[in-house]
Amino acid sequence: MALGLIQRLLADPAEEPLLAEVRAGGASFREVVFTRNRRVMVSTGDGGRTLRLHERFREAPVEVWRAIGCVVSRKPERARLAAKEVIVRFLRENPPEAAPPRRRRARTDKSDLARLEAEFDRVNEEFFGGLLPRIPLSISGRMRRRNGHFCTHPLEIVISRRLCRKAEAGEAEKTLRHEMIHLWQHEQGHKPGHGVDFRRWAEKLGVHPRATRDVTWSCDTPRT
Predict the structure, then answer these.
(1) Distance, CA of 164 to CA of 68 (rounded, Å)
(2) Model's pTM, two decimal places?
(3) How large is the average pLDDT for residues 191-218?
(4) 146 touches 128 (CB < 8 A)
(5) Do domains 2-93 and 102-205 have the same CATH topology?
(6) pLDDT per residue as tens digits for the range 105-126
(7) Rounded to an integer, what distance in angstroms lies between the CA atom of residue 18 and that of residue 180?
(8) What pLDDT sits at residue 100?
(9) Residue 213 to residue 146: CA distance in whole angstroms
(10) Residue 158 region, left (φ>0) first, then alpha (ψ -120 to 50), else beta?
(11) What CATH architecture applies to the domain 102-205?
């Protein structure tokens, strides 16, 4: 019981709605990991404790999340086949985007990545004693609800292109520092979350101590 309570306290609040709907569909997992594997869209790992989903499902409606829970549950075959149709229909209407050529993206985002990498090195040296590993940083144009994301499979930090291009100066760096705290948690062997240790580091690094925050957008950018 104590272990379950600790896991709930450390859980990423952004993942809780999805996991709750998966449980409503008939399956229970400790965590969800988003991947970019276009061949296997849904799978399990860590002895059945981890749900692995293609990142396209991050923005899926709740009925799709519930269908995923049904498909990986022990419900009757008829129910699981019907749920599979819901998932297939969603993917047919929202196919995973093909990744653009890496060289083209590197040129397009070169200046943004350069300043984020400089900020990573500065914060790592000043606050973490240079102990954080230099993991890949990337910029994504597919993020709609999140400003950034720390991923463990593969190990990387992803920042929204919209945040880099349309927010006021410094906003992307704030999100990077937020994700660097999650990297520190991961390196310490803790599940990334927004508990006491996160809030302590957030105060040191000058970032919002919660999972979400308000962003200051440029004057010509609509607030959506």
Answers:
(1) 33
(2) 0.54
(3) 91
(4) no
(5) yes
(6) 444 688 999 999 999 999 999 9
(7) 24
(8) 52
(9) 10
(10) beta
(11) 2-Layer Sandwich (3.30)
Element (H or E) spanning 127, and its range? helix 110-127
Q: What is the DSSP letter of 56?
A: G
Gap between the Cα atoms of 87 and 12, Å rounded: 24
Residues 6+ apart with CB under 8 A from 11: 19, 31, 191, 193
Residues found in the chain? 224
| Residue 77: CB atoms within 10 Å | 7
Evaluate whether 25 touches 67 at the Cβ level (below 8 Å): yes
Amino acid at 113: L
Q: How far, CA to CA in Å, does 121 sit from each of 107, 117, 125?
A: 21, 6, 6
Helix (H) or strand (E) holding 149: strand 148-152
Instruction: Please say whether the dihedral angle defined by the alpha carbons of residues 27, 32, 38 and 43, taken in this order, is positive or negative.
Output: negative
Residue extents of the structural domains in the chain: 2-93, 102-205
**Higher per-residue pLDDT: 15 or 139:** 139
The domain 2-93 is classified under which CATH number: 3.30.2010, 1.10.3470, 3.30.750, 1.20.950?
3.30.2010
Instruction: Report phi then psi at 95, rounded to 5.
Output: -65, 145
Residues 22-68: tens digit of each pLDDT = 999 999 898 888 888 777 889 888 778 889 898 889 889 999 999 99
Q: Which of 28, 9, 11, 12 is nearest to 20 (CA)?
A: 28
Give the C-alpha separation, 22 to 26, whole Å: 7
Three-class HEC string of 166-204: HECCCHHHHHHHHHHHHHHHHHCCCCCCCCHHHHHHHHH
